[in-house]
Automatic annotation (TrEMBL):
<keyword id="KW-0808">Transferase</keyword>
<dbReference type="InterPro" id="IPR037143">
    <property type="entry name" value="4-PPantetheinyl_Trfase_dom_sf"/>
</dbReference>
<dbReference type="GO" id="GO:0008897">
    <property type="term" value="F:holo-[acyl-carrier-protein] synthase activity"/>
</dbReference>
<protein>
    <recommendedName>
        <fullName>L-aminoadipate-semialdehyde dehydrogenase-phosphopantetheinyl transferase</fullName>
        <ecNumber>2.7.8.7</ecNumber>
    </recommendedName>
</protein>
<dbReference type="GO" id="GO:0019878">
    <property type="term" value="P:lysine biosynthetic process via aminoadipic acid"/>
</dbReference>
<feature type="domain" description="4'-phosphopantetheinyl transferase">
    <location>
        <begin position="7"/>
        <end position="97"/>
    </location>
</feature>
<dbReference type="InterPro" id="IPR050559">
    <property type="entry name" value="P-Pant_transferase_sf"/>
</dbReference>
<dbReference type="InterPro" id="IPR008278">
    <property type="entry name" value="4-PPantetheinyl_Trfase_dom"/>
</dbReference>
<dbReference type="GO" id="GO:0005829">
    <property type="term" value="C:cytosol"/>
</dbReference>
<dbReference type="GO" id="GO:0000287">
    <property type="term" value="F:magnesium ion binding"/>
</dbReference>
<comment type="similarity">
    <text>Belongs to the P-Pant transferase superfamily. AcpS family.</text>
</comment>
<dbReference type="Pfam" id="PF01648">
    <property type="entry name" value="ACPS"/>
</dbReference>
Amino acid sequence: GSSSIPNFFHIMKRQFTETEWGVIKSMSNEWMQLDMFHRHWALKESFLKAVGVGIGFNLQRIEFSVSPLQLEIGKVYKETKMLLDGDKEEEWLFEETRLDDCHHVAVALGKQEGFGQKHSDVCSMEPNQPQFTLLTFEDLVASGIPVTPEDSAYWDNFCSKQESPVKQNSHSR
């Protein structure tokens, strides 16, 4: 919803450390900076989901040192390191993949109660084995079962609606 990438970065300033902003802004143009922003965001989100905390967590407590700077599409990387409250976290491994020119995936793997495996067990997959599979909407719903019988009148009513909502006059009742 921002008018520009610099304005968006200004709004998001508190979500990253100065070091992370330095890496983000070191990219050669605004689109590459935005791409690096999304990579850092995916890493932070992966950690928050892994530990089960919400976005109320102070994101400046975690800092990522991304490596390498450029990711090849389809290749899995495990070099990125994380600092938590300024201390290097050796117990956490982050797998990163660039799915295409616009999408990053980051998975946080760490020692947790009930996790039941060490990193070596999790990361013992063959190096060239694909670890992510792109699924279409059809793939996701192929085995779906309707929870209620189909109501053709409901569908007809849905199809008769306009494509976009009409702005209502605030004075009309």
